[in-house]
Amino acid sequence: MEVKGLEYLMVPLGFAVLVSYHLWLIITIYRRPKRTVIGINAESRRQWVSTMISDPAKNGVLAVQTIRNNIMASTLMATTTITIGSLISVFVSSTSSTGKYRYIVLCFLVAFLCNVQSIRYYAHASFLVTLPDGEGRKEYLAAILNRGSLFWSLGLRAFYFTIPLFLWIFGPLSMFASCYLITFVLYFLDYTGSSNYDPYEYVQKEEANNSDIESVGQSRGINFAANSSLQSPLLASHNMTST
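Structure for DUF599 domain-containing protein, as requested:
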């Protein structure tokens, strides 16, 4: 009876810690995305899409291979979750803690469905990335990739959620401690602690440096089109042979 009362206290508190942390994470992603890894990665994917579709003939193969790697990762996670869930379901009818095992199977099922949706969005993106450029294509492709990554993250969170459920079998104290430990680890995985990082910062600096070089050259009377050695050694050698 004492263990039962401890379970009624510790289990809800452990779940409350995990739920509260993820509510805080969602609010932080919407309000201060640059402070979270999820927000920074979403902006980085938008920049990646802009880079890939700027030259489809050059970057098409690289883009498709990158998306294929994401599909393979989601496929591996989906296969793992459905396999473990199926193995656990075999023992559900032959154990006294059927309720706890059913919660574990439910989490694995949610993880499987989320990874399937992730594969679906990545498959759509692999077709869209090689299409000719059109109005709104870049924004739509970035949204598709971010949705695929969102379902990947949800599937991974559901996979993490099975850890305290597994430890719940050994007692409410182990489950409660694992909830705090997982929350502590996830905080360092999700939170960057800096709002100054910008995925576009490098590109903006490169454009600024190029414009500064051109302005200095024009002020000194340097013709960059004629002085091809400043652009490429291959062009310089070609001009020397032609003269």
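Residues 95 and 125 are 44 Å apart (CA to CA).
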